[in-house]
Amino acid sequence: MPIVEAHILEGYSSQDKARLSSALTDAVRLVVPAPDEAITVLLREYASEDYARGGSRRTPAPASPDPKGVVLGYLDAMAARDTETASGFLSVGFEMRFPGSGPMTRLQELIAWSKDRYRFVTKTNEAVEAFQSGRTTCVFVRGTLAGTWPDGTVFDGIRFVDRFEIEDGLITRQDVWNDLAETRAQ
Asked: Model's pTM, two decimal places?
């Protein structure tokens, strides 16, 4: 029955604290084979005037954006064909790779590359998972694709996995795997 106690400064929203509690529970489960209901997380909040480091009072840093929200916001903007909004989710030096493509760094490259692959594609997300490793957050989105081939034939139920890397709240990398080519060849 693991108990985790974290000390934080006041100022984080209920949603931010729920994300922190969930992440701490997940961190315990990486090592201790305990069910969720056996893991207790206690957050102790302190007023900023009751805290000093190096002799100076501190205020809490803003919470990092929810990485799942960052990725889903980007994917929603792409689905709406709003490349201006989608670009706002990308960091300087962003890179993406799709099956059969080389590295691309601009959304316009993706649009040009995909125009001969299909007329239109949509995603149905089945799962969105986030993992932290050092400064980088990895977000995996998996589900199915539906759309129209260049000849007008409709397709659906094609598996995909997107892997995103996020640093400082922005997407730095996107890797995509899917069965489009295999399905089209059939």
From this structure: 0.86
